[in-house]
């Protein structure tokens, strides 16, 4: 659980399901990154994974781009197909469960939301102009993308310290010597305030490595609390 406290009095204001908060804030961060880094004419979305994070990304990303086609891939083809059918009806967009991972990587925007320990996205599959949100594996020993993906991309993170300490994808590329610290161009915050240039041309491959920040949890919880009050949802507890 996540407990939201009053900033002035220190009293608890809300107890919120932590998994839901994580899904919402991670997908929202990917949407922001997509908004500032993806090509404006992006029309296809690839989702790798079929869990809670995949669903949250399916709901969030269409807020920043109008996707005409969405592709879902996962190791369990039946679960991928079930998600495609569910969200096709919910989002009123064409969604296809694809059999092979490289098919999902054909998309203009790709989101990896898996717990993969070894790379499932390979640099040789990428094409000019794509944007990637790498939001799944989040410990140093795991990686969803191979070193070549990092080499080919303009790389941005949410919080530099976390990326260097926990981002297995980034750590592998640094350890191999294929990239150096300067290859990580900055945070999405840097892009938003104009301190760092995001996309420089339509041919750039851009990548956002997401690990999460406490501030994102705080903003999400505050939003959920206000929505619950406005909609009269949730259970009131007498302390």
Examine the coordinates and then state which fold CATH places here, giving the name of the CATH topology.
Answer: Rossmann fold
Helix content estimate:
25-40%
The arrangement of helices and strands along the chain is: EEHEHEHEHEEHEHHEHEH
**Ends apart, CA distance between termini:** 17 Å
Query: What is the annotated CATH architecture?
Result: 3-Layer(aba) Sandwich
How would you summarize the topology of this molecule?
Layout: E1 2-5, E2 12-16, H1 18-37, E3 44-48, H2 52-60, E4 69-73, H3 77-91, E5 94-97, H4 101-104, E6 109-112, E7 131-134, H5 147-152, E8 154-157, H6 160-166, H7 168-176, E9 184-187, H8 188-192, E10 206-209, H9 214-231
Parallel strand pairs: 3-4, 3-6, 4-5, 6-7, 7-10, 8-9, 8-10
Antiparallel strand pairs: 1-2
Helix pairs in contact: 1-2, 1-9
Provide tags for this entry.
two-stranded antiparallel ribbon; 239 residues; 9 helices; alpha/beta; eight-stranded parallel beta sheet; Rossmann fold; 10 strands
């Amino acid at each position: 659980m996540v407990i939201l406290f009053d900033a002035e009095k220190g009293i608890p204001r809300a107890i919120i399901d932590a998994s839901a908060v994580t899904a919402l804030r991670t997908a929202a961060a990917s949407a922001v990154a997509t908004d500032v880094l993806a090509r404006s004419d992006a029309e296809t979305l690839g989702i790798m994974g079929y869990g809670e994070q995949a669903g949250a990304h399916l709901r969030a990303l269409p807020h920043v781009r109008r996707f005409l086609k969405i592709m879902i891939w996962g190791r369990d083809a039946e679960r991928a197909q079930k998600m495609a059918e569910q969200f096709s009806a919910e989002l009123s967009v064409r969604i296809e469960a694809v059999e092979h991972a490289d098919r999902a990587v054909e998309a203009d925007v790709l989101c990896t939301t898996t717990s993969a320990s070894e790379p499932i996205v390979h640099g040789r599959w990428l094409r000019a102009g794509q944007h990637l949100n790498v939001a799944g594996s989040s410990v140093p020993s795991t990686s969803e993308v191979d070193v070549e993906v990092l080499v080919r991309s303009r790389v941005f993170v949410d919080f530099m310290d976390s990326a260097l300490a926990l981002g297995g994808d980034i750590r592998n590329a640094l350890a191999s010597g294929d990239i150096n610290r300067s290859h990580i161009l900055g945070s999405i915050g840097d892009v938003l305030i104009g301190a760092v240039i995001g996309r420089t041309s339509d041919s750039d491959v851009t990548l956002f490595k997401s690990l999460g920040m406490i501030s994102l949890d705080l903003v999400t919880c505050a939003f959920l609390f206000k929505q619950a009050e406005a909609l009269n949802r949730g259970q009131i507890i007498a302390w």
